[in-house]
Design a protein that fits this description.
seven-stranded mixed β-sheet, six-stranded mixed β-sheet, 10 helices, about 30% helix, about 20% strand, binds fe (ii) ion
Length: about 270
């Protein structure tokens, strides 16, 4: 059962893990509280014997908090997969610490991120699940599958997101993220929240073409929440507006190298 609508309505105890989806296939927020607007939303899926940790955060800023929240749910040694949506330090420089706790865990990453991740200080000889650029990679669980969808140049050239078939949640990494001082777990006021998403996307995302291409790819998936790595979770009620707003946002190269007047006119008449 999707608990995000209830969480939007009330006060949430963020000192503990927060259940976002209840059942035999459960999803938890296990992220961090910190004064920086770059605070980290880590997530944990528990499905039978599978314990899947997502974007566990940085060593210094996030690891102690994320570990504490995970420990309140499952032994960290039982983690079976660590999903790393791209290689940024705020998202995963804690990988060596997690691999000490769960040396058998498989790391899910795209091939281009896989090349970079061991530079954080662990052996490349760990178990990997490569996410195909063809979007054909899934992780089959007792209850449904996780589907991995690449998001080229949003913002890493070979970044990806994870769609959870059971909950309908899209774990979107930096896409849909917001930099906000007055953070709450679930966004309630869409217009206010969108204002906090705009600066992040303008600076980090490559172009509107990249955004539109990705949004087209996720059209077939019924999304019941967008769970980003920074900022509030976007509940189902706001998902259509989030998709629409992002698909119309000029960003990155659109703003740095705008089309000339001639190109603009031609693109309208051709
Ligand atoms: Fe990033
Ligand atoms: Fe990030």
């Amino acid at each position: 059962m999707n608990r995000i609508p209830d969480l939007a309505a009330g006060d949430v105890d963020l000192s503990r893990p927060v259940c976002l989806f209840e059942g035999d296939h459960a999803v938890y927020w296990v992220g961090s509280e910190e004064p920086s607007p770059f605070r980290c939303n880590a997530y944990l899926i528990v499905d039978g014997d599978r314990r899947i940790l997502m974007d566990p955060g940085s060593t210094v800023h996030h690891f102690p908090q994320v570990r504490k929240r995970v420990e309140q749910l499952v032994p960290p040694s039982s983690i079976t997969e660590i999903i790393v949506h791209h290689q940024d330090p705020d998202l995963c420089d804690s990988l060596p610490s997690w691999l000490e706790l769960a040396p058998q865990a498989r790391i899910v990453a795209t091939p281009r991120a896989r090349v970079l991740l061991p530079y954080y200080g662990f052996s490349a000889d760990v178990d990997w699940l490569d996410v195909s650029p063809e979007d054909s990679t899934t992780l089959d669980l007792d209850h449904g599958s996780l589907v991995f969808i690449t998001a080229p140049f949003l913002h890493f050239p070979e970044g990806y997101v994870t769609y959870d078939e059971v909950s309908g949640f899209l774990f979107s990494s930096d896409i849909g993220a917001a930099i906000e001082k007055d953070w709450r777990l679930v966004a309630t006021d869409w217009e206010r929240h969108w204002q906090t998403m705009i600066p992040f996307h303008i600076f980090y995302m490559a172009s509107n073409r990249a955004l539109k291409g990705f949004l087209k790819k996720i059209e077939p998936f019924p999304i019941t929440a967008i769970c980003p790595q920074h900022g509030s979770i976007i509940p189902e009620a706001h998902v259509p507006r989030a998709v629409d707003s992002l698909s119309n946002l000029p960003c990155g190269l659109d703003l740095l190298y705008p089309a000339s007047n001639i190109e603009s006119v031609l693109s309208e008449i051709l």
